[in-house]
Design goal:
Mean pLDDT: 91
Distance between the termini: 57 Å
Order of helices and strands: HHHHEEHEHHHHHHHH
Length: 349
């Protein structure tokens, strides 16, 4: 087994990516970090000192690096707007305050490719090996989210990314697995894997609703056509009902279970948005919203969906739906951009 082919492929990819412009210095640092690790492995390979028994692990590291590079390439300013990532990073910090985590996206040509990939155990395994060989370790761990390319600048559709971030939080704290452990003590569960799948979807829906109210429900309702349970997902109606119960503080044993488990890991399920009256939104005047805090920032997606679904207003009556959709996306983008720009100025003053 040889590493030569993989090394040359990665070398070429680094050459193509060296001029990338990232939204923050951490991504630039990560690029430099994985390049140094790659260069060290390349040197070891060229000098013939890699043991044959170690080649499979080095191959895993190289494959991890090229995958990380792919996500970095798709997280540049000209591919994924920083506004989307910045909103998600604020939500992430509420749950995990770790500057060594980086949210990254990979674009797919498949419209249905919307998911997240978690790699903590594998990440730790690779770093243990690198340390044993006295090589530099991978500093940043990417939270990898796959996003359909067609949605990369669609702010109304990116409400689904809050849901995907919820899956990451679930996996980090083993929330769904803890629910399974709790329920199985008193109830016979016919298919534990399917139960875990459904529980994970419910938690991700709740996680998103904390920040964007029922905006994710709106997107879910428009995108899905089935209303029966599947092996991987509860029915759409069940998911929408759960979010509605949470937002309206109705009794729910499922929500109570989540709250109990989340509190055990030192966190809390709660409303993390601040409502603004949608009927008074600046969007009806074709100007961005003025956002005063992070909670209003997250609610901007709910405002966008509220205006999009409003067929009674005369503001957009003469606009084709396509133009209305594009305008709302532009207004959401400008609202978020202005908020972060002003926040940056205030932090420097």
């Amino acid at each position: 087994m040889s590493l030569n082919l993989l090394i040359n492929q990665i070398d070429s990819q680094f050459s193509n990516s060296k001029n990338n412009v990232y939204s923050d210095e951490r991504r630039e640092e990560h690029f430099i970090n994985i390049y140094k690790i790659f260069s060290s492995i390349k040197h070891l390979s060229n000098t013939g000192v890699i043991l044959s028994t170690d080649i499979p692990v080095y191959k895993q590291i190289l494959q991890y690096i090229i995958s990380d590079l792919q996500y970095l390439d798709n997280s540049t300013l000209n591919v994924i707007p920083f506004e989307i990532i910045s909103c998600l990073e604020l939500a992430l910090k509420d749950w995990i305050d770790d500057d060594n985590l980086i949210l990254s996206t990979s674009l797919s040509n498949n419209f249905n490719d919307l998911y997240f990939s978690r790699n903590k155990e594998f990440f730790d395994h690779l770093n243990i090996f690198l340390s044993s060989k006295s090589l530099e370790q991978i500093k940043y761990r990417q939270i990898r989210i796959s996003l359909p390319k067609i949605l990369s600048r669609d702010y109304l559709a990116t409400v689904s990314l809050y849901h995907e971030l919820g899956h990451f939080i679930d996996a980090e704290y083993n929330i769904s697995k803890r629910i399974l452990s709790k329920i199985s003590k008193s109830t016979i569960i016919a298919d534990e894997k399917s139960f875990l799948n459904h529980t994970a979807e419910y938690f991700a829906d709740l996680f998103a609703a904390q920040y964007i109210s029922d905006a994710s429900n709106q997107y879910l309702y428009d995108r899905t056509s089935y209303d029966n349970d599947s092996y991987t997902h509860p029915s759409t109606s069940k998911r929408i009902t759960l979010v509605d119960d949470f937002l309206n503080m109705r009794p729910s044993s499922i929500i109570d279970d989540f709250k109990e488990i989340v509190e055990l890991v030192g966190k809390k399920i709660e409303l993390r948005f601040e409502e603004k009256t949608i009927s008074n939104s600046n969007f009806y005047k074709f100007i961005p919203e003025i956002l005063e805090n992070d909670k209003q920032l997250h609610y901007i997606y709910k405002i966008g969906w509220g205006v999009w679904k409003d067929n009674t207003s005369t503001s957009f009556i003469d606009l084709p739906e396509k133009q209305k959709y594009q305008m709302l996306n532009n207004l959401i983008e400008k609202s978020i951009s202005s908020y972060f720009l002003l926040k940056s100025w205030n932090n420097k003053s």
